[in-house]
Specification:
By secondary structure, the chain is mostly helical. Helix content is 69%, strand content 0%. The protein has 5 helices and no strands.
Length: 77
């Protein structure tokens, strides 16, 4: 069983965003959320809901299942 890790989603999203050399401003626009909302997700103070995960995955051009798998891998480490 994987323990819940409040930081897993945010750290994974931040890492993927930085690998693609996207600012929070640009990426939040691609996702369709406020930059402040993205910043809170990346800091772990706000957890993304399923719709937001879906939109983030689409902005990264990956399936939502791949994004969730990467979040799970972070939580395991």
């Amino acid at each position: 069983m994987i323990e819940f890790n409040r930081m897993a989603a945010g750290e994974t999203i931040r890492r993927l965003r930085k690998e693609r050399e996207l600012s929070q401003e640009v990426f939040s626009g691609l996702v369709g959320i406020a930059r402040s909302h993205l910043a809170m997700i990346e800091k772990g103070s706000k957890q993304p809901n399923f719709e937001t995960i879906w939109r983030i995955a689409n902005a990264f051009d990956i399936p939502p299942s791949e994004l969730v798998a990467q979040i799970e891998n972070f939580a395991r480490s």
